[in-house]
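Problem: given the chain below (88 residues), write out its structure.
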Amino acid sequence: MPVSHAPSPLLEMLAGITDPRDRRGIRHPLPAVLGVAVVATLAGAANYRELGSVAADLPQRLLHILGAAGIRPAIGWRHRARERCGGC
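Solution.
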């Protein structure tokens, strides 16, 4: 099945979310990070550790479509994300 390169309604919706992060700490666009999180969750990730593992294995072509080309989750990212959500 061919993958469309046109923005999907999901990506358009994610682009409309206000980014609460301090600008000094932003490395990747919020819609890209959220898009990767959605795809990883749909692929079976049930927590932040699994989300990072699944996201790290996503093909570059898919990451590019999500606007996240070159993003590779790091342990520090997962740790910070877990702290921000209260350990969820």
